[in-house]
Write a structure and sequence with these properties.
Layout (H helix, E strand, L loop, with lengths): L10 H34 L28 H12 L3 H13 L3 H23 L8 H9 L1 H33 L6 H20 L2 H26 L16 H15 L15 H30 L9 H10 L1 H35 L18 H17 L2 H29 L14 H14 L4 H28 L1
């Protein structure tokens, strides 16, 4: 019987088999190393409590292009300062002087103190979230989607009204240098260049929009600081009374007017998703910006009141006061400052306003197209374009006074809601990490909310009707998009 010989594998086959075996061993060792490193890294991570319910914030995983964090602490301060220092400070000194006379600086002190209560509430609420939305996000988290939409809607209206009113003031001051730009076709061209240029900057990247805000903040501050630094030496101290408390009715009217001048700090709370370390930087930016502008505003009123005898009836109070102690060059410097200031304020609003549209759309309360982010520029490009076009249309057909009052009423509503939201969020999110907490328990939030409601009682019946109509429109929007969401589901 013939025994069959076993075939020996060829050398090349043996080599290939050994090679596969070594590769398999190598993969196993790499996997074990990665596993051990993962365990070590996990153990070294700090354990943080949940900052919000999981169903309140949409998941961003595999959701396409996202925002980039490009706005630092100075950028947030600049956004807040640009929101506060706008066109109002160039015209309101005369309005406040007409209401309170020599005691008009008291209105600024009172308004600054009341604003500080609101700022403290925004600082605590803002430190809890790292998503885009600001007051809309706080209200939605605290009170649900309906109140959230109403607050987001009123916030959006206030940004549109502010952008339009400031753009109108821009053309008025630009007319000082080139009169055709203050009316007719020239005004339309100026508005188009201003809002179109700012929209383009904010489409091509948040960095460019933030850089524009930073540069314009510095540029607008120089003329105002010069006005105070020089004018303080020409002040007649007998023309103002800081220690005299004025009539309560006149004080309330003046404080309501000053809401437009002191408001705008909330702009910094909106683009949190594009800010670096927002939990730490946002509360700090809000507090620093309002403290600086409050001191500047009080000094400006003192200088204007102490150097210009007819302040209460002057149409261009700061320019006229500058002419008193700096000559014609003073009026020119202040007018240049007004042009830069209005441009800077609109740059901040055009950066922030579209993010409100984006936040509403991202949560299904506005058309989904507004939540699209450009794959290259990482900006809400459609929301930016829609916001700029709407602001342009309002600027063409709305008056400065009407737009200012709409903005002030809307601001008081969402400020009151944010203040009330603070104690609610404390109860709903007891374990959340708070980088800033308002002292005194619920006392400050309640005082801030009551202050906002008190100021609202000073509006006229027509203004109150306009506010109710705006809220009704928000309720209709809520019903429409809620039904659309159910149909889609």
């Amino acid at each position: 019987m013939q025994i069959e010989k076993r075939k020996e594998p060829c050398p090349s086959a043996l080599l290939f088999r050994n090679f596969k075996h070594e590769i398999s061993n190598l993969k196993s060792r790499i996997f074990n190393l990665r596993f051990h490193f993962a365990i070590l890294n996990f153990q070294s991570l700090p354990i943080r409590p949940l900052m919000r319910p999981s169903d309140a914030i949409p998941s961003h995983e595999n959701a396409g292009p996202r925002f980039i964090r490009a706005v630092g602490l100075f950028g947030l301060i600049a956004i807040a300062v640009n929101g506060v220092i706008g066109s109002g400070i160039f015209v309101l000194p005369a309005t406040v002087a007409a209401l309170l006379g020599p005691a008009s600086p008291v209105a600024y002190i009172v308004a600054a103190a009341l604003t500080a209560l609101m700022v403290a509430c925004f600082a605590e609420a803002g430190g809890l979230f790292e998503q885009t939305g600001g007051p809309y996000l706080y209200a939605r988290e605290a009170f649900g989607s309906f109140v959230g939409l109403e607050v987001g809607w009123m916030f959006l209206l206030s940004r549109l009204a502010a952008a339009s009113a400031i753009a109108n003031a821009f053309t008025a001051y630009l007319g000082y240098f080139w009169p055709p730009m203050s009316g007719g076709v020239g005004r339309a061209i100026a508005l188009t260049i201003l809002l179109g240029g700012l929209a383009w900057l904010n489409v091509v990247g948040v960095r460019y929009g933030a850089w524009a805000v930073n540069l314009l903040t510095i540029a607008k501050s120089v003329p105002l600081l010069l006005f105070v630094a020089v004018g303080i030496f020409f002040v007649d101290s007998g023309r103002f009374q800081i220690l005299t408390f004025p009539d309560t009715t006149a004080l309330r009217q003046a404080s309501l007017a000053l809401i437009f001048a002191f408001g705008g700090f909330e702009n910094a709370s909106v683009p949190a998703e594009e800010a670096k370390n927002p939990a730490r930087n946002l509360p700090l930016a809000l507090i620093v910006s309002v403290a600086l502008t409050a001191v500047l505003y009080i000094l400006i009123q003192i200088v204007a009141l102490g150097t210009l005898p007819g302040l209460a009836t002057d149409a261009t109070p700061l320019a006229s006061a500058g002419r008193v102690f700096l000559g014609p060059a003073g009026a020119l410097i202040i007018t240049i400052g007004a042009v830069l200031s209005t441009t800077g304020s609109d740059s901040a609003v055009v950066l922030v306003g579209p993010r409100v549209l984006y936040a509403l759309a991202e949560r299904g309360q506005m058309p989904k197209a507004l939540a699209r982010i450009h794959p290259r520029y990482r900006t809400p490009h459609i929301a930016v374009i829609v916001f700029a076009v709407a602001a342009w249309a309002l600027a063409l057909y709305g008056s400065f006074e009407e737009l200012v009052m709409v903005s002030a009423i809307a601001r008081l509503i969402f400020c009151a809601t944010t203040c009330i939201a603070v104690p609610v969020l404390r109860r709903k999110m007891p374990n959340a990490t708070r980088t800033f907490k308002v002292p005194g328990g619920p006392i400050v939030p309640v005082l801030a909310a009551v202050t906002s409601l008190w100021l609202l009682t000073g509006v006229t019946s027509n203004q109150a009707i306009a506010g109710c109509v705006a809220l009704a429109c928000g309720a209709i929007l809520y019903a429409i998009f809620k039904r659309i969401g159910r149909t889609t589901t």
